[in-house]
Structure formats: C-alpha cells, structure tokens
Amino acid sequence: MNRVLTAEREAAEALESCRLEAERIQESGRRRAREILEHAERIAREVHARTERLAAARALQITSEAARREADPATDPLPAAVERLTRRMTGGGDA
C-alpha cells in the first residue's frame, strides 16, 4: 500500500512540475510575442516618420521649383503671349 501511495504522490509531484514548467513556457512565449509586437510597432513608426520627412522634403522641392518657374520670365510663357497679343492687336509686328 505504501508503494501505491508513494507512486501516487510522485506522479502528482511530476504532474505539478510539468504544469509549472508549462506555465513558465507559456509566459515566456507571451513575453516574446510582446517584444516582437513592440519591435514591429517601433519599426513601423520609424518608417512612417521617414516617409513623412521624405514627402515633406519633396513637397518643398516641388513648391520651390514651381515658385522659381513663376518668377523666371524665361520659363513663364505668359509675358511672351501678352507681347504677341499686343503686337497683333496694335498691328505692330510679325504676329
């Protein structure tokens, strides 16, 4: 009878040990999953910030180029068109 009780106690202890080990493994997995998620979110924030910086820089470049074209009479077709129209309307020139 003692052998049966001893075996039962040992089995219960082994079962409890396995349960505790399973809980440790499960918690370790949860912790690792949180770390992976935090890392992925950090990377996403960095990519988003970099994209915003690049987009802002490109928008500034486009705006600057447009302003420069508007300010440069050589690239603005309006003055030449006005000049041709004026000549045509006044009969002065080769319209």
Give a short overview:
This protein is mostly helical and 95 residues long. It is built from 2 helices and no strands.
Mind explaining what this structure looks like?
- The chain has helices spanning 2-71, 77-90.
- By secondary structure, the protein is mainly α.
- The protein contains two helices and no strands.
- The model has no long low-confidence stretch (mean pLDDT 89).
- The protein has one domain.
Compute the average pLDDT: 89
Taking pLDDT < 50 over at least 5 consecutive residues as the criterion, the unreliable ranges are: none
Tell me roughly what share of residues is in helical segments: over 70%
Strand content: under 5%
DSSP helical segment count: 2
Topology as a string of helices (H) and strands (E): HH
Q: Outline the biggest β-sheet.
A: none
Silhouette: rod-shaped
Distance between the termini: 123 Å
Radius of gyration: 39 Å
Q: How many separate structural domains?
A: 1
Coarse structural class:
mainly alpha
Name its key features:
95 residues; mainly alpha; 2 helices; rod-shaped
Question: Which helices and strands, and how do they pair?
Answer:
Blueprint: H1 2-71, H2 77-90
